[in-house]
């Protein structure tokens, strides 16, 4: 859901709405779409070799000197229809290779969409985390300011030493400096968020989803399932098959080529003594048989076969990388999930400890150092919880990309 609030100059974004806006603005997706269109056009070009072709040539001549009663000008027009009957299997192989390359472009487009989705989710989660960091830092500054006012009042009444007041004042100064840094980090995350969706204005946004939302851990898939689902693996397999058809295309160039056609001509008599024209025609059968090219055929086929071997090696390397990526992604996700659960428990303990320390200090049963330590502990554990939430959300997004879900 996208809702624009002009009064506050803010836009409410759901995660899905943000993904959609990034899809529309992504140059990577635009380029992938153009590549699909180009590959589709190549298929149509390759298909024309199955059909007869019509060509025409003509000429117009004029002489500088008259020959007897002949006119100085003359012309000829020669249309020709030709059909390839046999080309050594090259026509079909070329068409099939074009189809496979079109499928490769489509798979690459799908992989690009997965990458863009992952980038969009990272930007969304980063902004959500920075909003929480900023809110926590602001709350921490408010707590220190509140404590400072209490200590300042007690100092004026002579109940606390000057050192206690200076310690709280130093802590307040550090907290305010940290808040400035956090505000800057938030602005950087916001600019990244807006840039991906094509908003150069950099207006503030409100997120309807958050890293605090419950995210279910996806079930682990087997390596074989992942390889079948990943578009880049399917593209690699199709690229290998297209390279094999490339070998057939290369080999066919050195096979006999048989064509049949009908040609005609409309022209003036030569010499052109009456400005009259005549029509003529012929059935043409052409045969081209390569005989000897100094081993060119063998070397050309070897070159084409190297493309097959390269594609096979690339596919095997991609398979290995994908298997390692899945294992690392699963480990990162399960580890971040455990850290998230642990951090949530720690925050509960730190919050309770902070409340007890603050109450004890107000009752004169604890020192200001105890309160400051409890505050530092709470802030650190709370930011650790935010980091753990962010890491888990990103890990889930990464795993969905790795396994092409």
What is the SS-derived class?
alpha+beta
| Beta strands, count | 7
- Describe the main β-sheet briefly: 4 strands, antiparallel
Series of H and E elements: EEHHEEHHEHHEEHH
How far apart are the first and last residues' alpha carbons, in Å? 22 Å
Mean pLDDT, all residues:
87
Taken as a percent bin, the fraction of beta residues is 5-15%
User: What is the count of helical runs?
Assistant: 8
Could you list the spans in which at least 5 consecutive residues all have pLDDT below 50? none
Percent of residues in helices comes to 55-70%
Strand arrangement in the largest pleated sheet: 3-4-6-7
Radius of gyration: 38 Å
Oligomer: single chain
Q: Could you describe the 3D structure shown?
A:
The model has no long low-confidence stretch (mean pLDDT 87). The strands form 2 sheets. The chain has a 4-stranded antiparallel β-sheet, with no helix packed on it. It starts with a strand and ends with a helix. Strand 1 and strand 2 form a beta hairpin. The chain contains 8 helices and 7 strands, in the order ββααββααβααββαα. It has 405 residues and is of the alpha+beta class. It is elongated. It has helices at 15-25, 27-47, 90-156, 162-196, 223-229, 231-252, 296-362, 368-402; strands at 2-5, 10-13, 53-62, 73-86, 204-207, 257-268, 277-288.
Secondary structure blueprint with pairings:
Layout: E1 2-5, E2 10-13, H1 15-25, H2 27-47, E3 53-62, E4 73-86, H3 90-156, H4 162-196, E5 204-207, H5 223-229, H6 231-252, E6 257-268, E7 277-288, H7 296-362, H8 368-402
Parallel strand pairs: 2-5
Antiparallel strand pairs: 1-2, 3-4, 4-6, 6-7
Helix pairs in contact: 1-3, 2-3, 3-4, 3-6, 3-8, 6-7, 7-8
């Amino acid at each position: 859901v996208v809702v624009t609030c002009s009064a506050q100059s803010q836009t409410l974004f759901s995660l899905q709405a943000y993904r959609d806006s990034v899809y529309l603005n992504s140059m990577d997706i635009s380029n992938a779409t153009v590549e699909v269109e180009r590959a589709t056009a190549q298929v149509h070009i390759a298909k024309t070799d199955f059909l007869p072709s019509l060509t025409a040539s003509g000429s117009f001549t004029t002489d500088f000197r008259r020959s007897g009663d002949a006119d100085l000008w003359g012309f000829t027009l020669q249309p020709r229809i030709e059909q390839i009957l046999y080309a050594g299997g090259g026509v079909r192989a070329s068409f099939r290779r074009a189809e496979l390359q079109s499928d490769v472009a489509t798979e690459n487009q799908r992989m690009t969409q997965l990458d863009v989705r992952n980038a969009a989710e990272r930007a969304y989660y980063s902004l959500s985390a920075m909003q929480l960091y900023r809110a926590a830092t602001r709350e921490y500054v408010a707590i220190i300011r509140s404590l400072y006012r209490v200590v300042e009042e007690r100092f004026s009444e002579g109940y606390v030493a000057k050192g206690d007041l200076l310690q709280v004042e130093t802590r307040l100064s550090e907290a305010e400096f940290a808040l400035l840094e956090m505000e800057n980090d938030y602005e950087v995350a916001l600019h990244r968020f807006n840039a991906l969706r094509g908003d150069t204005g950099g207006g503030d946004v409100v997120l309807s989803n958050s890293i605090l939302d419950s995210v279910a851990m996806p079930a682990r898939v087997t390596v074989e399932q992942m390889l079948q689902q990943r578009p880049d693996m399917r593209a690699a397999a199709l690229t290998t098959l297209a390279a094999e058809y490339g070998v057939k295309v290369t080999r066919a160039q050195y096979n006999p080529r048989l064509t049949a056609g009908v040609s005609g001509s409309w022209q003036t008599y030569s010499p052109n003594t009456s400005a009259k024209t005549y029509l003529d025609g012929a059935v043409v059968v052409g045969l081209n048989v390569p005989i000897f090219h100094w081993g060119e055929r063998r070397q050309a086929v070897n070159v084409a076969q190297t493309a097959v071997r390269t594609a096979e090696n690339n596919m095997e390397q991609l398979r290995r990388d994908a298997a390692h990526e899945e294992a690392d992604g699963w480990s990162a996700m399960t580890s971040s999930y455990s850290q998230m659960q642990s951090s949530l428990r720690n925050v509960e303990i730190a919050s309770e400890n902070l409340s007890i320390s603050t109450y004890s200090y107000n009752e004169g049963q604890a020192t200001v150092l105890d309160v400051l330590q409890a505050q530092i502990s709470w802030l650190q554990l709370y930011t650790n919880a935010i980091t753990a939430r962010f890491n888990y959300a990103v890990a889930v997004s990464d795993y969905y990309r790795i396994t092409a879900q």
